[in-house]
Amino acid sequence: MNDIAPVPVSFHVRRPWADGGRLLVPRSSTMAIEKNAPAIELINVSRRFLSPTGKSLTALRDFTMTVERGEFVAVVGPTGCGKSTTLNLVTGLASPSAGEVRVMGAPVTGIDPRIGFVFQSDALFPWRTVIENVMAGPLFRGRAKPDAAAAARDWLARVGLSRFEQHYPHQLSGGMRKRVALAQTFINGPEILLMDEPFSALDVQTRVLMHEELLRLWSEAKASVVFVTHDLEEAIALADKVYVLTAGPATVKSVYTIDLPRPRVVADIRYEQSFINYSRTIWADLKEEVETSYARAAA
Ligand SMILES: Nc1ncnc2c1ncn2[C@@H]1O[C@H](COP(=O)(O)OP(=O)(O)OP(=O)(O)O)[C@@H](O)[C@H]1O
Hints:
It comes from Mesorhizobium sangaii. By secondary structure, the protein is of the alpha/beta class. It has helices at residues 83-91, 130-140, 145-158, 174-186, 204-221, 232-238, 266-269, 273-298, and strands at 2-3, 40-50, 56-67, 72-76, 98-103, 106-107, 115-119, 192-196, 224-228, 241-245, 252-257.
């Protein structure tokens, strides 16, 4: 059921650029495509930071992770262990201190337009309507306005928001804003989707609806996904593989292959015995790291 792989990894991406954190400016050197290479590879990566007091802090150590094309990988680990730092390395916003990060077989040397993001906080432009938010990506990439508007309408229909295209973000519920964010991301046809606790601010029922929505969009788009979450059940319900990270510096403690059939009905799957078994086994593993992390914080 699971293969334990004592290896290290992690990331950090906080929507730093103009297009709500989703659009990335191409760098030709990252565009090489190796046909059969995995979507993402982190190979013995370490990442160090300088703390405010000038001390060196190792966020990731000997971190190794492979995400195959079309694979859905979830990453869980104690708070502050280095999950976001791992994502940042994949985007090219941060460079490894040691080791190698590859996207589609080529070393990451800058920001890559094939990568899309969804974050915990809303990354919508508050002064733009829903349709203007969704159109922003295609316009930024040079598509003509009528064309971008047609594509945005299509995506708004897919996420059930056609009636809200002229609303502003503040006029929507949290779940609706997330749907806009998904449309805004998927409209760019990302080959890789990095998601950093995207649904953690939503209530439980809305989260489950968003899980269903995400799995549907993902299965249509065939993108490779890295989904960072604190919620183990969310990780198991969505992913093909769950990576458990150690308390910082993050290394890969274990990798679990989630052999639950697809398509999955997220609302129901958590009551199945096999789901409960995964949950119990992985939590036992994760709990040790969470306890270590708390003990350190208390000390
Ligand atoms: N730019 C930076 N400069 C200094 N330290 C940093 C920087 N970015 C991250 N860190 C440190 O690296 C470690 C890992 O941070 P990171 O945000 O990746 O963890 P995380 O697992 O995503 O956290 P959380 O679960 O709370 O979201 C933390 O100790 C953090 O303080």
